[in-house]
Write a structure and sequence with these properties.
The protein is of the alpha/beta class. It is 41% helix and 21% strand. It has 13 helices and 13 strands. Helix 7 crosses helix 8.
Length: 317
């Protein structure tokens, strides 16, 4: 049996530094191993050089080195697929919204982005045999979209206790981009305490960044902050085997003369960081069309689904 290393086993980490690490949310070696040196240095008030030594030691203990494809495949078996409520949409996504991944849904107002987010907050609570993750959800609300009454509707349709379903969702209203970033520390605290969080929703990812950073002069700062924010979400997803679902705003490109001019906000930063990208739009007869734009292992395709009183469905109400 392999030895289980503790924080104090790390070279140069005594009781005082171990306490600082725990207070900053670094309760295990994996949390340290996947953190950039500068970020760790700022969190525990040490030099970047000391932080780098601690991180390297944690990586050595965890054997975070090259591995065979077979070993990697074994680790992939930990991944859980959370149902969207629509079999069509689940098939499009290869079984549902995946843990250890970031799924981005972008589209115009009324395309179903938030409805899918609310549905996932309920579905994640279902047992794994019912295509859930038997866990809790976090909903970062940047646009005032969270609706408890809608959660209750969906929960009752799934045979869950409506009040319990709401208790299993942690909600925070982010009022600006700094607050949105700061809430990541609160999420880390909850995870460190052992809360069984299996889904983080950010609705929407880019609205505050877009509103606060106006003009080409601020573009570099905006993209840098956005990039750091997204990669922190990805690290949490990997470290705690949870799913991240973010919604994104769109804009119309005037230079597109033929075809759909709709483009997601955030540019290449968001595009490259997202594991799965979904483009949602309104379809015929009250349907919604979901198009898989990007995926590491699935073909580009599209399907339809409906938004009903009881949640996301394959059939019109």
């Amino acid at each position: 049996m392999e030895k289980e290393y503790k924080l104090k086993d790390l070279p140069g980490v005594g009781s005082t530094l171990a306490k600082k690490l725990e207070e900053a949310g670094f309760t295990d070696l994996m949390a340290i191993a996947v953190t950039p040196p500068l970020e760790l240095a700022e969190a525990i008030d040490v030099s970047e050089n000391v932080a780098r030594k601690i991180i390297n030691a944690a990586r050595k203990f965890l054997r975070l080195d090259l591995e065979t494809g077979l070993e990697y495949e074994k680790r992939r078996k930990e991944i859980i697929k959370i149902t969207t409520g629509s079999k069509n949409l689940d098939v499009l996504l290869g079984g549902g919204i995946e843990t250890k991944a970031l799924t981005e849904a972008y589209g115009a107002f009324g395309s179903g982005k938030t409805q899918l987010a609310l549905q996932l907050c309920v579905n994640v609570q279902l047992p794994q045999e019912e295509n859930g993750a038997n866990g809790k959800a976090i909903f970062i609300d940047t646009e005032g979209t969270f609706r408890p009454e809608r959660i209750k509707q969906i929960a009752l349709a799934k045979g869950l206790n409506a009040e319990e379903a709401l208790k299993n969702i942690f909600v925070a209203r982010a009022f600006n981009s700094d607050h949105q970033i700061l809430l990541l520390d609160k999420i880390k605290e909850l995870l460190a305490k052992g809360e069984p969080i299996k889904l983080i929703v950010v609705d929407s990812l880019t609205s505050h960044f877009r509103a606060e950073y106006i003009g080409r002069g601020t573009l570099a700062d905006r993209q840098q902050k956005l990039n750091r924010y997204i990669h922190t979400l990805l690290r949490l997803a990997e470290q705690y085997n949870l799913a991240v679902y973010v919604t994104n705003q769109v804009m119309a490109r005037p230079d597109i003369l033929f075809g759909d001019p709709t483009q997601a906000i955030g540019g290449h930063i968001v595009g490259h960081a997202s594991t799965y990208r979904l483009y949602l739009r309104k379809g015929k007869k009250n349907s919604r069309v979901a198009k898989l734009i990007d995926s590491p292992n699935l073909p580009d395709n599209e399907t339809i689904f409906f938004i009903t009183t009881y949640g996301i469905s394959d059939k019109e109400e």
